[in-house]
Amino acid sequence: MITTRASLHTLGCRLNQAETSILGDGLRRKGFELVEFGQPTDVLVLNTCAVTEDAERTARYLIRKTLKHSPHAFIAVTGCYAQTGIEQLKQQAGIDLIVGHQFKLDLPAYLPAIHELKKRLVPDIHHTKTMARGDFDLPHFAEPDSTRALLKIQDGCSAMCSFCIIPFARGHERSRTFDDILREADSLVAQGYREIVLTGVNIGQYAHDDKDFYALLRRLDQIAGLERLRISSIEPTTVSDELLDLLATSKKLCPYLHIPLQSGDDQILQAMNRRHTIKAYTKLIETALTKIPNLGLGTDLLVGFPGETDTAFRNTVAVATDLPFSYLHVFPYSSRPGTAALRIKQRVPSALVKKRTNLLLDLDRAKRLVCHNAQIGKTVSVLFESGTRESYRFGTTPNFTKVAIADSGDLENQIKPVTITAATDRCVFGDIASSQTAKASMALL
């Protein structure tokens, strides 16, 4: 029997990854056989990102690359670039279908019937400039392709940071209905997933009926059989004291927060239209660490924002150095169409942006090594992923440390105690601990 192949690829954030899983399930329902991206295929669904110009360039490159090994493949493009860059994509050779965010999760329904798949002279387009503002349910639940299941709870952002295109790409903030979230969470646990990661654009703004983000966390924390619940990136202005208290006391919520800082200079934060100050951010981190001493803490830093002086950059380096981050995500500024930052005339030369980016990347590596070295000798709980890399099996701790052990059989989706014996800036290494050692020295990391 001849099967029709489809592959999917995701660029960008965890929310995109969660939505790709839903699209994959829709393709299976339509009769496609999913194949690994990069293999010969009859259909490619590319879920794109528009946060940087590099992300858009990568999307165009991947389309060309796919058509080299699969010249007759039907190319469907969705995601943020499909929403904000539709005029560019209409000019890109080889694209057959463009689906904006309003219709994204219905993409499988817009594909031709399997026996009618063929290249288009011009792409079919399903796109609106604006997105519906109402709360939403998902059309169906996906089967995640990782041991850590991504659960979409929210979409859109109304913050309007001056550098960010996401409000234009995904629209205003809106939340998934409370009961629909719980139904999928229960389904994931029933399928055997041990960790759920909550995803969205601005998840701390979750609100449905009289339920806010804290109420949602409390309810998910009560699900029988769920072992780990993780919060993905969350804005500093939405991290409340009651949320920190829940993180400190819950046996399921992972002691981990990724809280974007973006800059360590108040004038730059104001120009970015960020809603926090350095003083408020620092106080939040100090409070969080007092309540949760074993907290894994990550942040985002944007380098080369228009008007970033040497003094402003030094302030960023000082704050990033002083605060006990486990890691830094460092991004060079990329001008985005329609954003307010385009009106700021003082541009930072590209060579200086690159130099500053490299300095912060060096700091990131140093931060990771300090964090990892501190765990040597501890026995930690590790949820293992599938497969091996370079004869190692990998997993994550509750505080989001990457752990590697020598391959010793299939450990996929198992939680094991591991004693940490060595560290690099990329991960820590260890050995599975005996049950006696684990009981005596297990750390919630």
Q: Any overview of this molecule?
A:
The protein has 445 residues and is of the alpha/beta class. The protein folds into three domains: 122 residues, Methylthiotransferase, N-terminal domain (Rossmann fold, 3-Layer(aba) Sandwich); 225 residues, tm_1862 like domain (pyruvate-formate lyase- activating enzyme, Alpha-Beta Horseshoe), CATH 3.80.30.20; 65 residues, Nucleic acid-binding proteins (OB fold (Dihydrolipoamide Acetyltransferase, E2P), Beta Barrel). Helix 12 packs parallel to helix 13. Helices cover 33% and strands 22% of the residues. It has a six-stranded parallel sheet with strand order 2-1-3-4-5-6, with helices on both faces. Strands 17-18-19-21-20 form a five-stranded mixed beta barrel. A three-stranded parallel sheet has the order 7-10-13.
Spatial shape: globular
| Name of the top-level CATH class of the largest domain | Alpha Beta
Number of helices: 14
- The H-level CATH homologous superfamily of the largest domain, spelled out, is tm_1862 like domain
Largest sheet: 6 strands, parallel
Helix content: 25-40%
Helix/strand/pairing category: alpha/beta
Reported by name, the CATH topology of the largest domain is pyruvate-formate lyase- activating enzyme
Number of domains: 3
Average pLDDT, rounded to a whole number, is 95
Summarize the structure in short:
The chain is α/β, with parallel strands linked by helices. The protein contains 14 helices and 22 strands. The chain has helices spanning 14-29, 53-69, 80-84, 86-91, 107-110, 166-170, 178-190, 213-220, 241-249, 266-271, 278-291, 310-322, 350-373, 435-441; strands at residues 5-10, 33-34, 43-48, 74-79, 97-99, 124-126, 148-152, 154-155, 174-175, 195-199, 207-208, 211-212, 228-231, 256-258, 296-303, 327-332, 379-384, 392-396, 402-406, 415-423, 428-432, 442-443.
